[in-house]
Amino acid sequence: MYQGSFSSPVQHSLKIVTSFTILRDFVQKITSGASNVKILSIVPAESDPHVYQPTPLDGKTLTEADIIFINGLDFEKGIERMLKSTDTKATISVATKYVKARDDLKDPHTWHNVKNAMLYVKEITKTLSEADPNNAQLYKKNSDLLLKELQELETWIHHKLSKIPPTQRIVVTTHDAFWYFGQAYNIKFMSPIGISTEAEASAQDVAALINFIREHKIKAVFVENLANPRLIEQIARETNNPLQGTLYADSLSIPDGPAPDYISMMEHNVQTICKALQQ
Ligand SMILES: [Zn+2]
């Protein structure tokens, strides 16, 4: 589902493009009430930004934009490639600009730590206010409200997870998307596939993971909303584990789904993880 184009009868003075749904959500919340703003997002909900190939229409959208928000850390490789080949004059804002990334790995999934999401919001607000100073006050007000909600979310996550004993804090999921979540909230995540869904698991890694699950009697095995579920289904079967639900890793859900915005995504993931770990 493509979300329209900039060539509509209504003229918008600030044309914004976001690479994927989580950035779209933040930009929408921060610009709420600004009538001159039009936001288009390239990778739709329930699509995988790691492997997304932009279309010629996406190229036109990028060329016409005033601001383009991307995650960075090699997350949206296809979009970054296209940006290099278009002559867009847009301001390109990298949401992870102030985020401390994982060691020397380019692990882009930094938003799974709410404190990092707050840094995204600050960078987005700064970029918007510089591009559209007339609305800077509105953006600041919306941004402060969002930061307050994110702070409440952070407190809630710590409280919710505090009930889980340290020995039970191991979760198995499809690809290595939750390292930042694990660091922030003290959960160990394991997965057969690496940082990008493009990677393939080796038979040896899968066998080692299956042994580990058996040995430690791990019950929390999850599919993700985007990545191919076949391998994780096989691992669940071989370890006699029913799958414990779906975690939202790299994209929000459609509006009627369980994770239509960032806060509901985090709440859904935490509740799903807690339920599995408290069995
Ligand atoms: Zn990912």
Please, what is the average pLDDT? Answer: 93
pLDDT < 50 runs, ≥5 residues:
none
Name the CATH superfamily classification of the largest domain: Nitrogenase molybdenum iron protein domain
Which fold name fills CATH's third level, the topology of the largest domain? Rossmann fold
Calculate the terminal CA-CA distance, rounded to whole Å.
38 Å
CATH class of the largest domain: Alpha Beta
Strand order, sheet with most strands: 2-1-3-4
CA-based shape: globular
H/E series, N to C?
EHEHEHEHHEHEHEHEH
Task: Report the β-strand fraction as a percent range.
Answer: 5-15%
What labels would you give this structure?
4-stranded parallel beta sheet, 279 residues, single chain, globular, 8 strands, Rossmann fold, binds zinc ion, two-stranded parallel sheet, 2 domains, alpha/beta
Account of the 3D structure:
The protein has 279 residues and is an alpha/beta fold. α1 packs across α4, α4 packs antiparallel against α5 and α5 packs parallel to α9. The model has no long low-confidence stretch (mean pLDDT 93). Bound molecules: zinc ion. Zinc ion binds next to loops.
